[in-house]
Amino acid sequence: MELTGSVPALTAAYEVIRQPLGEILPRLSTVLAGLVRHRAVAELSTHCAHSPFKTYGDPEIIGRLSTADLTPLLASGTPGRPWQGTLTLAGAERPVFVATSHATPRGAVLLLVRDGDAAPVDESAAALVQALWDVVTSHFDRLAEEAMPGALARSRTAAGTRARVIAELGEAYSAALTGLLGVLRSRTLDDAAARATATDLAVSALVELRAEAERDQEIAEEPAGQAFARLADSLRPLVRYSPVRLELGAPDSTRTVAADVAHTARVIVRAVLMKALEQETVSRVHVGWQLTDDELRVTVRDDGPGTLSHCDLAPGRVKERLDVLDGRLDVDAVPGWGTTVAAAIPLRVSQDPAPDPLIALGERELQVLARLALGHRNRAIAQELHISESTVKFHVAKILTKLGVESRGEAAALFHAVA
């Protein structure tokens, strides 16, 4: 698309922002190709909880890009002043063009990875790219500020999934570091053997962490046996070079458990095990899961001095996680015999969440309802959405019927209650 002149540029901007969210970056890449020839494009848009980091283009490049590549560019970029130069990306020195915008509260950065023989971008083309990126990020900000309930729900769900994945990675890091410390503290390995063993452990941990990080999204449920196997894999490095013998009791069930239940159970076991390993006289720890009709029961039992209590078990990592799922924790310590920590996590929520009353509405009906909730009359809504007043009346009638309300005021109140 030729962008010389204000009308073509405005048309191009319109063509970009009218796309669905998932198609904006590909369309922007196509529009910018005439200004800045590039092989791949990436964005980091901090407004978006659903997917702040997006890429498009050459799979060889985008498959090796991450938020770590764009975060420094966002932090160092100057809004309104594009930068071009070379960066080490995807394993090679590559020419790039970077535009930063502060149209959203925390900013957004656009990265164009160019061809190796690309000529520098002239000032007029750079200014036009910057202007288009500002328009796109302003559009993002408006969508974030005026998000429909459905979009908000998707963002919350994605943010929750991301939080669980990050927590899982944090636990994996903790387990890897604990394993390394166990090697370095071992009295049975000489220096050379300890270095070789620590290197092998670190490499294995990095491979596992990369596999975890590249997982697109945690599944909603997973088989109990598979969830326990993942736990077992993360526990073995903790005791590999320790005199403590780890006994594992996998659940005798083919049922599936919710991802948040499985994750919480793994967090509890790792936290309790690491606390148990701090006791000098422990020689054996048993870890077991058992599924009943209503709950997952987690047990960690050691043969230590029997002095552990609730206060020793990092309440921020155990009790608070259990509270979220209405779980409970019991600690039975017998001096001289050991400690048994048992947790029970309900497999089902105590009450189904109320369904979203707006789910029955179509996209256009949601647009009409949002403006109706702001107090706009039919004529104003028609002008804003570029439709006729009779069409607005038709949509309002459908909205009242689908929501089971009798007036515009009731519909507006329901929208505000949900949003």
Report on the structure:
There is one protein chain. Helix content is 49%, strand content 19%. It has 14 helices and twelve strands. The strands form three sheets. Strands 2-1-5-4-3 form a five-stranded antiparallel sheet, with helices on both faces. A hairpin with a 2-residue loop joins β3 and β4. α1 runs antiparallel to α2 and α6 runs parallel beside α9. About 4% of the residues have low confidence. Keywords: DNA-binding, Transcription, Transcription regulation. This is Helix-turn-helix transcriptional regulator. One of its GO terms (molecular function) is DNA binding.
Give me the secondary-structure topology.
Blueprint: H1 6-17, H2 21-32, E1 38-45, E2 53-57, H3 59-62, H4 67-76, E3 83-89, E4 92-101, E5 108-114, H5 123-145, H6 149-185, H7 191-213, E6 221-223, H8 224-239, E7 245-249, E8 256-258, H9 259-277, E9 284-291, E10 295-302, H10 319-324, E11 328-334, E12 338-346, H11 363-373, H12 378-385, H13 389-403, H14 408-418
Parallel strand pairs: 7-9
Antiparallel strand pairs: 1-2, 1-5, 3-4, 4-5, 6-8, 9-10, 10-12, 11-12
Helix pairs in contact: 1-2, 1-5, 6-7, 6-8, 6-9, 8-9, 11-13, 11-14, 12-13
